[in-house]
Design a protein that fits this description.
Order of helices and strands: HHHHHEEHHHHHHEEH
Radius of gyration: 21 Å
Largest sheet: 2 strands, antiparallel
Strand content: under 5%
Helix content: 55-70%
Mean pLDDT: 77
Structural class: mainly alpha
Strand order of the largest sheet: 1-2
Number of domains: 2
Number of strands: 4
Number of helices: 12
């Protein structure tokens, strides 16, 4: 089990979740993300952790006791709180959101740039065709972005639009026609946002991304989206079903 998995397990516990989303921790995450050149292994693990924190956000946001971070020593294996119960600060929901939510918005430009890091590696598929690999780092980023889009509201979507996250992710669908995990994550994110019917975001998706073009392109000849498989059987690119569902 690697460090990210350990921390993700710890995030299940509300007190430790508070530590992992404290200002002190968020500052460390920011430093790691902004390193040049980035340490890919470390960033991959961080994406796993951040994804877990996003998924647990709604569960833990009502946690009412703030742990006294200053009471935690770097060389200790245990967490202690010296603050008397009468002096424990109550977390306001908006304050809690403003820390973790604002952190994601602040680092979104850096995370969005990670989508541009094409590993330029091909792998042969079971169809005897070469497939461009998305790369594990970018897959971890995609998982995190999809979770962020579905767990936060309009404020996050506006940040996604500003950093062209929606457009980048939608453009990756036809670029990687066999990566159904990518297709599913983008589909879940896009349908969730469209279902909320926020006018500004819907207009962005329809007018400033390739979504409409992909849907209209399905009206072309069927063979444009097919290829010959291993036994010369006609197969359809994997993303077609997801785009059709988006069109519906």
């Amino acid at each position: 089990m690697n460090a990210a998995q350990v921390l993700s397990e710890l995030a299940e516990q509300k007190p430790l979740y508070q530590i992992l989303t404290s200002q002190q921790s968020l500052e460390k995450y920011t430093i790691l993300l902004e390193e040049e050149p980035p340490c890919e292994d470390a960033v991959k693990q961080l994406m796993v952790l951040l994804n877990t924190l996003v998924l647990k956000y709604n569960t833990h946001e009502q946690f009412q006791k703030r742990i006294n971070i200053s009471a935690i020593e770097d060389d200790e294996d245990t967490v202690t709180t010296d603050t008397p119960a009468s002096e424990v600060t109550t977390i306001n929901k908006d304050e809690s959101e403003s820390e973790f939510f604002q952190f994601i918005r602040n680092v979104l430009p850096v995370i969005s740039k990670l989508l541009d890091n094409d590993p330029n590696v091909n792998a042969e598929t079971s169809y005897c065709l070469e497939q461009r690999r998305v790369g594990m780092l970018r897959m971890r980023v995609i998982e995190f972005l999809s979770s962020s889009a579905t767990h936060f509201g309009q404020g996050m979507w506006q940040a996604f639009a500003q950093e062209e996250v929606f457009g980048k992710l939608l453009e990756m669908i036809p670029q990687y026609p066999f990566n159904n995990t990518l297709h599913l994550k983008v589909y879940e994110m896009t349908t969730h946002v469209l279902d909320k019917n926020e006018e500004e975001i819907v207009e962005h998706l329809l007018d400033q991304t390739c979504l409409i073009k992909m849907i209209l392109d399905l009206g072309k000849e069927k063979k444009a989206f097919q290829f010959e498989g291993e036994n010369q059987n006609s197969c359809t690119y994997g993303y077609v079903a997801f785009v059709r569902k988006l069109g519906n």
